[in-house]
Amino acid sequence: MANVLPVLWCTIHLVGVGMCMEGIEHNPVVYELMSEMAFRSQKVEVEDWLKSYSYRRYGQSNVEIQKAWAILYHTIYNCTDGIADHNKDYIVEFPDISPSSFSSQYSKRKIISHVRKHPRFLGEVSASLPQPHLWYSTEEAVKSLELFLKAGNGLSESLTYRYDLVDLTRQSLSKLANKVYLDAMDSYQKRDSSGLNFHTKKFLELIMDIETLLASDDNFLLGPWLETAKNLAMTEDERKQYEWNARTQVTMWYDDTKTEQSKLHDYANKFWSGLLKSYYHPRASKYFTRLSRSLQENRSFQLEEWRRDWISYCNEWQSGKELYPVKATGDALAISRSLFAKYFR
Ligand SMILES: *[C@@H]1O[C@H](CO)[C@@H](O)[C@H](O)[C@H]1NC(C)=O
Ligand SMILES: *[C@@H]1O[C@H](CO)[C@@H](O)[C@H](O)[C@H]1NC(C)=O
């Protein structure tokens, strides 16, 4: 979620209400309520407010959607652990570590149950395994998604409904992929090749399924980002430079060497169709291929070889010119339904 900074000049006359966001164009519900706050004298009853919000947002009153939003309010939109960090889901911020550098005694289940009770735990015992921040029950969020899908027949004409549906499906799948990644690491540490291959395949398939999902909504595409950058150019050189800038800003940034990723890599960590297929998938795939080979050959995982290979792929991608769609394709509701059936039923 973005940082929101209310700016209010209110000495004699109210002049304006403004917000200054670092990350924008997501979580519209936050900005909707935020911009009302200056006009309220009493505490807002968010649960009631949300009922009319979903009506205003989708143009129809719908009981299932109201229930879905009530769940979101108690889960995704209720982060109370005081941790304000960037999204570190493994797909968009793939760990730059060797799996032998963290001990298997801190296996997935232990980490998850322990972290729920002691959020600071990981920082103390294992600085090397990055943990995506999780402050809500993913099962509850999936229930909310199910209610969104139930409401789909009535609401699928609404662009805002489809946006929210795609976003919630995306997040549910990404959280699932985090678990699958940890399963893969677990298999590796147990030297279980077939387990590793099974979870790797699932992780990569999730990336491609999220790619297809995001491609169905204009708001989740890489293409418009690149095209708007190029359109600012007056000359061919500028065009080349602006495209490189736009590609670099959403991926590696600039201070990388042949074997060290930039300190700011994945700072933007966008879930955009185009990036998943051409950027996040090759990265994970190169990593897991080496991981599997290291088990077969009974030698340690060569982190530096992966970095060299990956960074060179990435630098080529940054200077690339291939085009990405600027218009959505596919039926968001149908895609979300089929992914729900595939992964959550
Ligand atoms: C948010 O979470 C806190 C801590 O778990 C809980 O006390 C509170 O009731 C929750 N609020 C909502 C709206 O669910
Ligand atoms: C793998 O290598 C280790 C030493 O590095 C050795 O102890 C072990 O027996 C080897 N395992 C196989 C299956 O070759």
Automatic annotation (TrEMBL):
<feature type="domain" description="Alpha-N-acetylglucosaminidase C-terminal">
    <location>
        <begin position="49"/>
        <end position="342"/>
    </location>
</feature>
<keyword id="KW-0732">Signal</keyword>
<dbReference type="Pfam" id="PF05089">
    <property type="entry name" value="NAGLU"/>
</dbReference>
<dbReference type="InterPro" id="IPR024732">
    <property type="entry name" value="NAGLU_C"/>
</dbReference>
<feature type="signal peptide">
    <location>
        <begin position="1"/>
        <end position="20"/>
    </location>
</feature>
<dbReference type="InterPro" id="IPR007781">
    <property type="entry name" value="NAGLU"/>
</dbReference>
<protein>
    <recommendedName>
        <fullName>Alpha-N-acetylglucosaminidase</fullName>
    </recommendedName>
</protein>
<dbReference type="InterPro" id="IPR024733">
    <property type="entry name" value="NAGLU_tim-barrel"/>
</dbReference>
<feature type="domain" description="Alpha-N-acetylglucosaminidase tim-barrel">
    <location>
        <begin position="13"/>
        <end position="40"/>
    </location>
</feature>
<dbReference type="Pfam" id="PF12972">
    <property type="entry name" value="NAGLU_C"/>
</dbReference>
